[in-house]
Design brief:
- The chain is mostly helical.
- It has four domains: 53 residues, no CATH class; 182 residues, Alpha Horseshoe (Serine Threonine Protein Phosphatase 5, Tetratricopeptide repeat), CATH 1.25.40; 120 residues, Alpha Horseshoe (Serine Threonine Protein Phosphatase 5, Tetratricopeptide repeat), CATH 1.25.40; 76 residues, Serine Threonine Protein Phosphatase 5, Tetratricopeptide repeat.
- 50% of the residues lie in helices and 1% in strands.
- A hairpin with a 4-residue loop joins β1 and β2.
- α15 packs antiparallel against α16, α16 runs parallel beside α18 and α19 runs antiparallel to α20.
- The model has no long low-confidence stretch (mean pLDDT 92).
- This is Ankyrin repeat.
Amino acid sequence: MSSRTRELSARSNLETLRRQAKRWLKEIETGDAAALARLRSLILNPASPPKLREVQHALAREYGFPSWASLKQELAAREIATRGRAAIVALFLEKSALRYGVRPGTEGWGGYEADRPARGALALRLLERHPEIARDSIHSAVAAHDLDAVGAFLASDPALATRPSEFDGWTPLLRLAFTRLPDHAPSADALGIAELLIAHGAAANGFWSDGSNHFTALTGAVGGGENGQPAHPQAEALARLLIAHGADPLDGQALYNSSLGADETLWLELFWEETAKRGEQGRWREPVRELPAPPLDYLLGNAVPRQPRRAAWLLTHGARADAVNAYSKQSLVRQALLDGREDLVALLRGHGAAPVELSEREAFIAAIARADEAEASRLLQAYPEFRLDPGPLRVAIRQDRPEIAALALRLGVSPDAESRDGVRALHEAAGADAAAIVTLLTEAGAEIDPVERRYGATPLGWAHHQGAQIAQALLAVHSRDIGALCRAGESERLETLLADDPAIANAPTRSGEPPLFCLPDDDAGAADLAEFLLAAGADPQVRNGAGLTPAEAARRGGLLDTAALLDAPAGH
């Protein structure tokens, strides 16, 4: 270890330190013995030749930090501090909570970043670096799960328990329910904070909206949803407390969100128990907000064909076996048949569902689903147009059964069969992280970057949005969707494409913005990709349709390390 610790100056930023590391590495590569000795004094047994990451680690140790990552965190914290307290608090409130695709302060869904772990990680880092922000307002105190601070605020002004935040319009109790900080020990105080807020008048049935759906505190406690958002760390106890103080146990959004996860019945049982206490089980057969059908029937439609345990529970508690799926409007027996789920067909028939007759097209899908190759071949010979039907591949993806996909493709079903809105099997397999099926489809010649008309995304975009990392890696090596590759941080594939066409570094992506506006949503990954793009010739002074530079857009998105890099003076 070097005997002298270097000090960061007021002008130190990520870019200047990256250049220092690169110069040091260059000196080593040109045979400078002193530069190599300096590295060896800080790093035990460096590679031969040394790697840039080793030199960066050594430089961090010279500055008194245990790692390059910790040095970058310090620089980011300094950059945050220059923005002022109000900006820090606003960023903490924004990133500390699940948002379900709704930009803070609006009621419009879509166009906002997904609820990925990087959001909570950034919020927790802000709190650790600036613990004083927990005492900025009752809202920051609640988001930090600081029971003492919440108590102090309420002691000075009890009305704060019900006062919406100017930042996003949420009440403190809503914020408590939707806050998610990774491995955050103080979350154990959530119940105490909730009890304190309710004692001071907080309404357990309050909500915020995405323009059409109500997201209550109970919804926040339960979590779940289309992106698999995590439940609150004290979810069950918090849910019971909220219901005891007026939250509706038949919360449509909470029921919907919890129906998209694992095949378990925790929330069904809890909500049933709570309605039973009130003598309100009959409401399970009546319309509720957010659901297009009575809860029992609607949830049974969601359970068939992937959740046999939930299906059995719902039927036992009064769901109608002859109900129809709320979206497809087809009978559940038909759905089970199409998916080859004879177990669910028997379960539904045992609870009174009537038999159904399948059309030839449906019979073809069902034959493949139950691996009846002879029957599927017979129907395909009679109806060759079935080769363009996406149904068999959808069944395979829905149940993650690659053997069904393999049979369909072997019989001649097109790997590019698509729905009316252009969604193909590769989109759905990518979003579901059905890696084996992604491989089967690509090997069968499926188009890699088709753009569907529902969201305007390629399969790689679906994989990244859903956090399907294996599918993302499989698709990235083939994709030419520059924007999606950038957002996914796939620099190796980008390097190959840039070698063939350097103009890509500044060309508009499908979104209309150049690559520097399409960065990953975690700061470390975004900074790495930004550095890569800058080295490839990307222009950091370009402006997007909103008039922002890449640095300004990164800063607005909370990518502070990245913003500092992009703000660096010319001469990268």
